[in-house]
Amino acid sequence: ARHRSVAAIKRFLCWQIETAQLLAVGSADGRVTILFDLTGFSRDNIDLALVRTLITLLTNYYPETLGILILHVNSWVFSGLWALIAPFIDPAVKAKIVMAKSAADIAPFIARDRLVAEVGGAKPFDYEYVLPTAEENRCMADAAARSAAEAAFVAAVADYEAATRRWLDAADSAEEERVRARDALRSAAADLDPFVRARTLYHRLGFIRADRSVQF
User: Fold this and answer.
1) How many of the other CB atoms lie within 10 Å of CB of 178?
2) Is residue 171 left, alpha or beta, with left meaning phi > 0 and alpha meaning psi from -120 to 50?
3) The dihedral of CA 124, 129, 133, 137: what is its sign?
4) What is the pLDDT of residue 147?
5) 99 - beta bridge partners?
6) What is the model's pTM?
7) For the chain, how far is it from start to end, CA to CA, in angstroms?
8) β-pair type (97-100, 32-37)
């Protein structure tokens, strides 16, 4: 862990957070619940660069993405590490971090029938990796289509910003216009997505659909 590239860690964590956001599209507030299973955590697993990077990302770049971060911990080593790093975590982020030693501690946040059996839940889970195909990201090479999708996205952003300003000035009377602009922006983002983001395992398993809706 001590010899890992911090830049590589940052890229990996950004990818994880962005992917989690895709899976949270249908949630009430768009925020994500992250569960870290730290069972068997030992001194060999200590990676302060990763911890600092994750905290920086969540605090400065994704401040409203995290709903709850659950740390499933049964290690005195991690407890000691937590005592060292906790004072440096932004209070707003720290308030979203939950320590859990059992499925009962996790239950207020994740229903037992949705919690994987590995951490005491009732949901069986067998990891299956579906290999990517040669064709799934071919559209990323279509420069003309990408430029058109980017232009449509930029225009949708401008429309939404303008609709939001009018909504702020006119209150409820501009709400419908703002909702239409919001939906148009979401559609433009979905159209642009395959040109700028490679398909993930969740796309290949059918969890994330072409329109970016989610079906588990």
Assistant:
1) 19
2) left
3) positive
4) 97
5) 71
6) 0.71
7) 33
8) unpaired
